[in-house]
Structures
1.
Amino acid sequence: MSLRYALLALLDAEPMTGYSIAKHFDQSAAYVWHAPHSQIYPELRRLEGEGLVEGAAEARGDRGSKTTYFLTEAGRAELRRWVAEPTQFPPVRDAAYLKATYLEYGDYANARSQFRAHIRHHEEMARRWDAHAADLANHETALLKLRFKEWPEEMHAAVVGYKVHAYRGLAQRARDEVAWARGGLELVERLEATRYGQASPRP
Amino acid sequence: MSLRYALLALLDAEPMTGYSIAKHFDQSAAYVWHAPHSQIYPELRRLEGEGLVEGAAEARGDRGSKTTYFLTEAGRAELRRWVAEPTQFPPVRDAAYLKATYLEYGDYANARSQFRAHIRHHEEMARRWDAHAADLANHETALLKLRFKEWPEEMHAAVVGYKVHAYRGLAQRARDEVAWARGGLELVERLEATRYGQASPRP
DNA sequence: GACTGCATGTAACGAGTTACATGATTGG
DNA sequence: CCAATCATGTAACTCGTTACATGCAGTC
């Protein structure tokens, strides 16, 4: 149910086509939410049906067309309602930790390679989130500049502050994942050092 | 696609009915994966169809029945295959961070209450995971004792070690979330201190 | 003329949520 | 006998993934 709010919040910065929204979501660093275009186009039409956004269609060639969506006053109100609403915390469902719990079903080499993949992935994530947080802090992102125009000056510190805090948090979270996986590598080391034999298969 | 492996791994410790699997998943601390019974029963039947588990049906009254499922050799092989397979990292989709990014749409009181709810939730999570990690480390969980019977003694350190590492990691992750939300409260404090006026609404 | 990027869609499927529904067993 | 717990299911729905599909615009 968060996709719609991600869309509304994006469109409040700048009216956009479904295509460019999809691009923002794809270059994952720039956004806390991911969605493929096959989800975005229908949702935009739904939002339009509810009067939360409005689409301005423009012809493109003979049959083609592109629609730039912008937020309506009702859409802005819906955004405020959502921000004020308590957030639901989804139940935990983490494939990497689930597997980490059962690494005894593989050998030490596999455990190592799982933790190394974890490190690689989250180092890359941390790099991206950090870069984005820095861009925001330096007021270097195009979207942020557009947002500033929509807000009175005394609110600019909050507009950027909340975003920087969120993206730094994501970067930190990724670094914590890296630290955890490094701990996993050390664990494998210890287990292997005290071995009676190589990770024996089940009897 | 991870639900099936959570089921297989549970059943390797102890043959169970769908009902007791659901209970394990519900008392979320004890498990890294959550699923309602409406998902579990059909999946067990699917797994049985694929020969990965086998169900022993037992009569319960005239019409009732209960089925205890246990892992087959093929199921154990599938579990090993999954553990050896590279893990996919899902794209980021975090409702709490999405909202944290847009707290300027609400007032400072709301921002505080959002961060406080975040703290409450993750403190509770940390408490549960820590408790479970401690129980595992002390070999005090019933399931772990059953698992030990299935593994040669030189593997026991690994069986418990991986699990403790995973649950401690989850506890640490929850504490990191708490720290992030506390940082959020400080941010609100700073923003409010430098205010020209209360969080002004949009022009 | 071919390739890349812009732009939009559908359809099938799998995963997860919520609600509804039924009945058995155990213990007070 | 009543409540709690054990036990199993279905149905409708939403959300998300993957693949297929089409066409325009600019440029090398």
2.
Amino acid sequence: MKRTATTDFAILGVLAQESRLSGYDLRQYLEQSVAFFWSESFGQIYPSLARLERQGLITGKVDRESARQRKVYSLTGRGRQQLAHWLDQTPLSERPRNELLLKVFFGAAAPAGSVRKHLKEVLARHEAELAQLQMIEREVAASDQNSSSLVYSLATIRAGIHLARARSEWARETLNSLPE
Amino acid sequence: MKRTATTDFAILGVLAQESRLSGYDLRQYLEQSVAFFWSESFGQIYPSLARLERQGLITGKVDRESARQRKVYSLTGRGRQQLAHWLDQTPLSERPRNELLLKVFFGAAAPAGSVRKHLKEVLARHEAELAQLQMIEREVAASDQNSSSLVYSLATIRAGIHLARARSEWARETLNSLPE
DNA sequence: TTTGGCATGTAATCCGTTACATGATTAG
DNA sequence: CTAATCATGTAACGGATTACATGCCAAA
């Protein structure tokens, strides 16, 4: 018995911050905010929107102000309630699958230089990610919008910074510790 | 077009380190070594073993030395070759889904105290994990076995340590930064 | 003798991505 | 005009967990 359906709650969460969004908007929003720790595909979003509307957690209406044919959704009271309930449940601890670490673990069976090559690549990637997140942090922190969600956005950005830094340091350290 | 089939390679990798293992053994091995960044269920392992044997990458034989009815597998030359090839491919960057961060991000819509509660829990969890990994690191480092895979085991353990430390520090810092 | 661990497998189900299918609008 | 982007959806597929189903062996 699992029951998570996190896609539904990701949608409810975004609609709690901003209403009158289309499926397309929702995707954009997620990509531009939480992409580094969460993502949804259209294949998930559209069926989910239909389901949530059927359940009365969101309401959809055709957007007349737009020239395009788009349907925008907003949270209902019940939707907000359900979201709050889900947010209160302790999050499931993820069972991550890290292909890089698996390849490092089996390093002894790899061709010479493979592991170093992978480590150099991730080091570069995480250093770039770190720089980018630090820039975003400065921007967000400087934005004068004192919305209630600001502190939470900042917290997740800092999580990304901590993780990118830890991964970079590990990669650097490991490159030094490996022979050849 | 994706093509990963990582379960297969996880099995090949373990068999490269130790031969004559049953499906049950493989599960045990994975749980006791790479569990914090990789796991496989029986529902994956047994079909995968059958497939790998059909492809000639491993060979299985009924274990006569054991009183139990078990079939043990070993890597073939071709299996070792395939593994080496896979290990050389740059690992796919994971698209992680972190439910905790999602709940933090939507914190403004949560009941009062929810986020703090979650953060306290993960802080405790990661601090315990950190202590455990540090212990394991000392044990493994002290083990006189100078096997070629030792350095790679240590590297993955240190990855766990870096990550657990980063997550703990982030949680502590975030608890301080949140109001109330 | 009965419980826990060893041991193997299949079936049901879920979750998620990718590909497919279609079409309108807008900017260059 | 034409390419990019907006926009919505379904179908096919694959990967993974969980539940189901079965049964033996060893230790308490």
3.
Amino acid sequence: MTQLKGGPVVRTRPQIDRDAAQPVYAQLAAILRQQISDGAFRPGDQLPSEAMLVRAYGVSPMTVRRAIQRLVDEGVVSAIQGRGTFVNTVQIGAAAFELGNLQKMFSDGAGASVKLIEARFVSADEETARRLQISVGDHAIYIRRLISLRDEPAFYHRGHLIYDPTRPIVESELEVTVLKGVFSGTGSSLVKRAELSMEAVLLNEDEAALLQAPPPSAGMRLEHVFFDFDDRPISWGWFVCRSDCLRLHTQVGLE
Amino acid sequence: MTQLKGGPVVRTRPQIDRDAAQPVYAQLAAILRQQISDGAFRPGDQLPSEAMLVRAYGVSPMTVRRAIQRLVDEGVVSAIQGRGTFVNTVQIGAAAFELGNLQKMFSDGAGASVKLIEARFVSADEETARRLQISVGDHAIYIRRLISLRDEPAFYHRGHLIYDPTRPIVESELEVTVLKGVFSGTGSSLVKRAELSMEAVLLNEDEAALLQAPPPSAGMRLEHVFFDFDDRPISWGWFVCRSDCLRLHTQVGLE
DNA sequence: AAGTGGTCTAGACCACTAT
DNA sequence: TAGTGGTCTAGACCACTTT
């Protein structure tokens, strides 16, 4: 609110600052987002048209579109051709639990250490053969590791890795593939894609002992399969941790 | 590959189809994505500059930028000002488990039914008061429900809801808030945001009995707090399900 | 200095929706 | 028919990186 001398009370509108470090489209997106958050536009309400925003803020149509598009990408509004742009209700289904949070535990100087429990050649059993798309009885590498945080056991990892001298997977790459690729951010350039799944499990005796959990205990299991650029599996494995090691948080809606 | 009559072998480049239903920027993004997927550009490689793409495909700079921006948003490439655009390695940390998959179980004619087990006024205990930002001893509504899919018990839900005659939360809205808002897609216009968390738990006796799981069993617990446009909590509760009811899948990387 | 991506303009034309 | 969002142009200027 601004009180002009002797004049009427004028409701000031947030303005674009052309000298700000923040781009104009981001400023406009922030203004609209804030207005929605403040309740000036409620779920279901129609936003001012692009043409109106162009006039109101003195920016070009493309800049307005970028601002709106950002809100669309955020799921805050929906733009419908021929009708207008409307504020969304909170969509819980849009919530996503990001693995990136978990990653921080390892990247920051969080005192992560890895102890190799076992690594040996095995003959692929039926499931391993299926997951790695090899034949039953083919060689594979089986590894078991314990990953600790600040000397507390946190993750128990088991993995099966392709062993094929004709394929360009060297020992150091394996390390990357199955550990760094998961937890320390930058993956191998041999990996094209990965499939992940997560579920709650009851820790078995070995797992409970290694993770220092009193049985019966619940845990989380994160399974992974990595594929190379020929779409062939490179590795298949899973991490198991105590439930108190992996609580995922997220937020949906504004602010 | 195209064999011109008597001429040399010409490697055809994917071209833009101006008459296609798909926008030009989407076509260009798809072309580049496919080339990366095919290994024509490997992780770490630099993409052709925007100016080169403008010449190569005969489109305007803005259109090239939109195509690249889409790949950036997808996490496939990173654009660095002054240096160029580079193909990313697979970033596992970018993986996100979406709740939307779960939502489908309820929205499709999946035979979801809800049975109210209990609903009564309670005096808020310490934790409830903290979560709902009310005073200990204040009235709240406590509800318990069992949600079944195809006559199989799937989710056990407990929730505490604000009871305040001065606040515009009617009975029907409560239903929306705690159930439809979570599982059937469209939320209430009273809800501004929600906080969610997920963890593995050991089912207690009651939970195991209701969910028809033999104890000891592991389960997943999904906790939620909804906030109104005044940033005050509306409800706090949690769903518990058997582990086999909630397996989350995701994929990271190309294709 | 040359090349890169980042922003922004001031329109144009189109497809779609409402009246 | 008027209004809406969706696409696209052909530049401009800027900030940044590399040579």
